[in-house]
Amino acid sequence: MHLYIRADADGKIGAGHIMRCIALAQAWQDHGGKVTFLSHCESDALRERISKEGFEFIYLEKVHPDPFDLYRTLSLLTTKTNKTNQTNKTNSTWLTLDGYHFTPDYQKAIRDVGIHLLVIDDMNHLPNYHADILLNQNIHAPDLKYNCDEDTTLLLGTQYVLLRREFLKYRDFKRQIPERVKNILVTLGGGDPDNVTLKVIEALKLLDEPDISVRIVVGPANPHQETLYKAIAPAHFEAELLINPPNMPELMAWADLAVSGGGGTSLERCFMSLPSLVITIAENQIEATCELGVRGGIIYVGWHEDIIEESLRSIVKSALINNELIKNISLMAKSIADGKGVDRILGKMFKN
């Protein structure tokens, strides 16, 4: 069995597409399969992470709609698949596409050469989809009406959340809710091009809370690291800036509250039953984040450009002292993701 993963990462789109695909790759590897990433990944740290996991990494210089992307991808897939089929007489090769730039034509070209295709989507933004399996792990996904091939299997909803091994170790984690929040985790995505992290830091500095402890996580591609170091230096509370920390679940277990972006890590925080104040920093995050807020799994603060530091300070202040609110959010968050998503996905893939 060979799984190819086509996903990219840079300062603009962040690392989320690759990070959730690593969860699928780990599970595939655990079942004895081989994994190859085909990627235009600009992060040395992320490429190193992929290699350390035991996955093959092939760098793609150009991305779709540049024709080199599809040409190179098809060349690699068909060459290796033909060699495999000569030995096994069956096609057990899969390609996973995770990225908003992969058009219907790109998807169809993959299926037309006989490769099994899993498409990971978040928004239903394309006029049609060509895939053996279409996966949308977001909470609002069951309400979306996808236009797909007749034989496409739809996997929609949080029962299919992709969680990496380091999270699954916390399946039996029991969160202790303190009378008053002390530990705050700040994480606004791997890239954070608009430096929303700085706005959060300044809001926390407005708090009269010297006893809190704040850990701020940024990705290696974040261009604002020096500014952030300068911002936390005069803070009257304990503050630490962490660049690409190796164990996010451990940080989530440490925290009593998160102030975070609305990307894929929202579902990871739900699994960890971590109460979160969520700020959307990309338009494709809004629908899922709103629904998580309606369900009570998070507190949705709003769109990052609309948030002022004083109003964010007030929201954080209320969360610090409202033990009952924090407890209820934690309970609702835990019910959203049960940690069995990747097993359910593999079960569908192995049936094809």
- Indicate the percent of residues in helices: 25-40%
Structural class: alpha/beta
Largest sheet descriptor: 7 strands, parallel
How many independent structural domains?
2
| CATH top level assignment of the largest domain | Alpha Beta
Question: SSE order, as H and E?
Answer: EHEHEHEHEEEHEHEHEHEHEHEHHH
Q: Could you tell me the strand content as a percent range?
A: 15-25%
Number of strands: 13
The CATH topology of the largest domain is given as Rossmann fold
- Please mark out the parts with pLDDT under 50 across 5 or more consecutive residues, or reply none: none
CATH architecture of the largest domain: 3-Layer(aba) Sandwich
First CA to last CA: what distance?
12 Å
Characterize the overall form.
Answer: globular
- Name the strands of the widest sheet in spatial order: 3-2-1-4-5-6-7
Question: What average pLDDT do the residues reach?
Answer: 93
Distinct helical segment count = 13
Query: What integer value in Å does the Rg equal?
Result: 21 Å
